[in-house]
């Protein structure tokens, strides 16, 4: 949907990656104390091995980390006039007079968007709310969600999954009395890859 929108409106498609997203979540609403590892931390304040660390923001791997980040991320997106799609919850648009002026899709801490001229300030405000490495804001040719995206000079967009497809491992399964360890035939590999 986003690529179709960008191509038909001759808009540049861009992507960004939010750095250390969980550390940019809303503060924790509970007490989380962490014990330093037995090997210690290279800081004299923790040399006794008994000092605990108070976490202010969610830590990767804790149950609420992803949710806390997502709630803040979604709030900042909607605060900047993007409306959440009711079916595809990670898709957002800005509409004016029933015409889409900007479209944004998200995946965890990654964004991909296309914006009509005059509406750039909305995405700029979102990017200003989070630490985003400028080198990770890309356009023209980039990867997003395992897909290789390339926007051509005429603003058409070519999408491929070459890297993901090439990383598919051998297919092994049981059929007609074969063992689970028997490899699939070349024909079966071709059939399975056409489905993947």
Describe it for me?
The protein has 196 residues and is α+β, with helices and mostly antiparallel strands. Helices cover 24% and strands 24% of the residues. The strands form three sheets. Strands 4-5-6-7-1-8 form a six-stranded antiparallel sheet, sandwiched between helices. β9 and β10 form a beta hairpin. The protein is flat, with a radius of gyration of 23 Å. The protein starts with a helix and ends with a helix. The model has no long low-confidence stretch (mean pLDDT 85).
Alpha-beta content class = alpha+beta
Strand content: 15-25%
Sheet having the most strands: 6 strands, antiparallel
Number of strands: 11
**Helix content estimate:** 10-25%
Instruction: Give the termini distance in whole angstroms.
Output: 21 Å
Q: How is the largest sheet built, in terms of strand order?
A: 4-5-6-7-1-8
* Rg: 23 Å
- Oligomerization status of the protein chains: single chain
User: From N to C, what is the helix and strand string?
Assistant: HEEEHEEEEHEEEEHH
Characterize the overall form.
flat
Give the uncertain stretches in residue-range form. none
Average predicted local confidence, pLDDT: 85
How many distinct helices? Answer: 5
Give me a quick take on this structure.
This protein is of the alpha+beta class and 196 residues long. The chain has helices spanning 2-8, 65-79, 120-129, 162-166, 186-195, and strands at residues 13-17, 33-34, 53-54, 83-84, 91-96, 99-107, 110-115, 138-139, 141-144, 147-151, 157-160.
């Amino acid at each position: 949907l986003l690529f179709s929108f960008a191509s038909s409106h001759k808009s540049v498609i861009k992507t960004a990656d939010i750095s250390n997203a969980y550390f940019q979540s809303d503060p924790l609403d509970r007490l989380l104390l962490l014990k330093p590892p037995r090997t210690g931390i290279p800081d004299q304040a923790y040399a006794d091995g008994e000092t605990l660390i108070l976490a202010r923001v969610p830590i990767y791997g804790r149950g609420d980390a992803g949710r806390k980040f997502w709630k803040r991320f979604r709030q900042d997106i909607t605060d900047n006039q993007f409306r959440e799609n009711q079916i595809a919850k990670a898709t957002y648009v800005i509409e004016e007079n029933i015409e889409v002026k900007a479209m944004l899709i998200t995946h965890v801490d990654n964004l991909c968007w296309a914006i009509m001229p005059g509406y750039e300030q909305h995405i700029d405000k979102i990017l200003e709310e989070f630490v985003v490495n400028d080198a990770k804001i890309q356009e023209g040719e980039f990867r997003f969600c395992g897909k290789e995206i390339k926007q051509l000079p005429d603003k058409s967009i070519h999408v491929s999954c070459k890297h993901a497809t090439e990383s598919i491992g051998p297919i092994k399964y049981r059929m007609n009395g074969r063992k689970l360890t028997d490899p699939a035939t070349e024909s079966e590999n071709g059939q399975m890859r056409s489905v993947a």
